[in-house]
Design brief:
The chain is built from three helices and no strands. The model has no long low-confidence stretch (mean pLDDT 95). It has one domain. Helix content is 73%, strand content 0%. The chain is an all-alpha fold and 91 residues long. The protein starts with 12 loop residues before the first helix and ends with a helix.
């Protein structure tokens, strides 16, 4: 484990109560543990968001290339074909 240092933070009364409730629940041994776990969860959430938006940017880039190279279809006819296919599948 990495060397730990001390950092003092200010919490709102609501967050303070939340942290203490987590310690009282027995899931965590200390407030520091609650904060460390919360920061790890924040890191994971940010990494997932970064991966999501990277994927979105890639899909947009592919779409733009397709449009630039003329690989497009007219929307209404595609929708009509999908609707007809769906009707056949329901039968």
């Amino acid at each position: 484990m990495a060397r730990q240092t001390t950092l003092n933070v200010s919490l709102t009364p609501t967050l303070r109560k939340y942290v203490h409730s987590k310690v009282r629940s027995g899931r965590y041994e200390s407030a520091s543990e609650v904060i460390r776990d919360s920061l790890r969860a924040l890191q994971e959430r940010e990494q997932a968001a970064e991966a999501f938006w990277a994927d979105v940017r890639e899909k947009v880039a592919v779409g733009r290339r397709d449009v630039a190279e003329g690989r497009t279809e007219e929307g209404e006819s595609v929708m009509r074909a999908h609707q007809q296919r769906a009707k056949k599948e329901r039968r």
